[in-house]
Amino acid sequence: MLPLDGVKILDMTQFLAGPYCTMVLADMGAEVTKIERFPSGDDSRRLAPFVNGESYCAAIPNRNKKSLALDLKHPRGKEVFFRLAERADVIIENFRPGTTRKLGVDYDAVKAVNPDIIYCSISGFGQTGPLAHQGGFDIIAQGFTGLMRMTGEPGGRPAKVGIAIADLAAGNAAAQGILAAYVHRLRTGKGQYLETSLVDAVLAWTVWESGAYFGGGELPEATGTRHRRSTPYQAYRTQDGYVTVGAGNQRLWERFCRQVIERPEWIEDPRFLDLGLRMRHIDTLEREIEAITVQRPTAYWVAKLDEAGVPGGPVYRYDEVLAHPHVQAREMVVELDHPIMGRMRSLGLPVKFQGTPLSIRTPGPWLGQHTTETLREAGYSAEEIQALYDQGVVYDKYPDRHAGA
């Protein structure tokens, strides 16, 4: 049994923020039915690379889900949606604000047939406020929230974080909110509406930056790999790459000086006596450290740091970390069979449950793979299902690929 066994979720999201949220919930055992328009489906299905015509990128965040290809603009499509909504515990959407109302599938419409529903909206700027009407992708949120001004090298152009951090932050916030709303419903029997945005979610993660600004008026600028409040806490150049060092407190700093960098005199150096002074002279400190670290390869410094009990490590390329024995041992790369792409690799599960261990049970579905199955479970007869196909209300991209077809 999985933590969310029996929880039925209708997922009307696409790209990454919403699908990441529903992936987290599906991994925990929720039955997630992904409702997609056709014939194109979720916009992420257009992202290369493709294997046998299927997007590898789309398959990753849509694991453990079912796909129902449904025309929500068709009256009969809306009928199908509401039949499913009556039985759902949670509905999630990430349309531009106002779209679900135009389609007639908004919270109030669903609440009329399912008063206990938990309905979550994810958008770029939120459902309220002067910018609510604007669309918002990850790059828009990173720019708007100041994140791009505090990322990259000092004096350089604004830089995007290397991953779609705004999408992921919003998806994570939505998942947390949905789980809290579900616990509330278990206690009270009452559902509710909740919403988050890419902008809100990113701002909520600027914890120390907000403290520095509210407390001292400090604007967070780009610092490269440096920590804003601590040093040495960054990546330093080595003979063959970079090494990260996390020696931000006094105890670790002294170990670093004596056992790693072998400069015990720095402990009494008036420029470096305490953290405040080290931060004041951070440029000098970086130059002094790198003058030493460039003389040896990264592996040498990682070993020295480990021996001294000072946190540190290599700066890997993505392919190097995925192949690392530790990552493999943690099962963060797994293999599974996709019905169209064949054998594929996927990311593993970041939370390890002892009592209810999670697993990737199914790969990301093809567009409409579970259309017939979902309609059948909703009580439609074979004749009614065929009529929905004939009328262009529902769709299955590969109808002949089903077992026994």
UniProtKB/TrEMBL annotation:
Keyword Transferase: yes
A Gene Ontology molecular function term of the record: CoA-transferase activity
InterPro entries xref list: CoA-transferase_III_domain, CoA-Trfase_fam_III, CoA-Trfase_III_dom3_sf, CoA-Trfase_III_dom_1_sf
Keywords: Transferase
Entry keyword annotation includes Transferase: yes
PANTHER family given in the database record: BLL6097 PROTEIN, SUCCINATE--HYDROXYMETHYLGLUTARATE COA-TRANSFERASE
Official protein name in the record: Crotonobetainyl-CoA:carnitine CoA-transferase CaiB
Species per Swiss-Prot/TrEMBL record: Alicyclobacillus macrosporangiidus
